[in-house]
Design brief:
The protein has 134 residues and is of the alpha+beta class. It has one domain: Roll (Nuclear Transport Factor 2, Chain: A). The protein is built from three helices and six strands; from the N terminus they run αββαββββα. A hairpin with a 2-residue loop joins strand 3 and strand 4.
């Protein structure tokens, strides 16, 4: 089971790097929480947020797994991301993700990160992208 969950987590971070999380990776009732939002969101909102995030990078945001630990229905992942923002600035993020797995799909995501680079570098660009999308 833990090896299967490791593979699922790797597919999840590959999808994050591609800027789109396919339905096949997530349960229909999937929920997500992030340090920057501080609120639980549903699957559709999470998937939209991933697309919006990808839109503020030139060439996307690449996620690299530093470590994975799987036990029972949980996968803990230490992850880094790197990319170049539309304004030309480099971005580097560090995270700890807790993924909950049910029936071979991700049922919940909790993303813990350093909020400073999110607030200082991503925040203004995400706000502008959101306003443009509305």
């Amino acid at each position: 089971m833990s090896q299967t969950n490791h593979q699922l987590a790797r597919r999840f971070f590959e999808a994050l790097s591609n800027g789109e999380i396919p339905d096949a990776l997530l349960t229909p009732d999937m929920t997500a929480w992030t340090t920057s939002s501080g609120a639980w969101s549903d699957k559709a909102r999470f998937q939209y947020g991933i697309k919006l995030l990808a839109s503020i990078f030139n060439g996307g945001l690449a996620y690299t797994i530093d470590s994975l630990t799987a036990e029972a229905d949980r996968v803990a992942a230490e992850v880094q991301s790197r990319g170049t923002l539309l304004n030309g600035e480099d971005y580097h993020g560090r995270y700890v993700f807790m993924l909950r797995v049910r029936d071979g799909r991700i049922a919940s995501v909790a993303e813990h990160n350093d909020p400073v680079p999110v607030r200082e570098k991503l925040g203004p660009l995400l706000k502008a992208a959101l306003q443009k999308a509305q």
